[in-house]
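Please review the protein record below. Tell me whether the encoded fold seems credible here:
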Amino acid sequence: MDAVAHARFQRFGRRKVAQVLSQVRGKTVGRAKELLPNVPRRSAGMVEKTIRSAAANLMVKAGHKLDLQSMWVKAGWVDKGPLKNLRRLRPGPQGRALSYRRKMCHLTIVVSDKK
């Protein structure tokens, strides 16, 4: 059985989140929860929170409590979100003003209880 969790409109670049995600893909949920607090990236907390949410979704779907070592991260991917323009300006070429562009991403995690 599979369960999915999404974290949408997160203010991280998708390549930086993908680096964290590649370290936990294919591992058990318990091992991922041990590993992620030691990853020196800001996005590691968001990935851990999404994995915990997917594990909780799987427990609700199963109807009973499951062991964290029996669940594993089956798949995970990051999609590009919208570019947000902040209401601040920075100097641009030839006297123009450019707005700051902030990257966003959408994270999807799939957790399964069968290997």
In short: The CA atoms of residues 28 and 42 lie 22 Å apart.
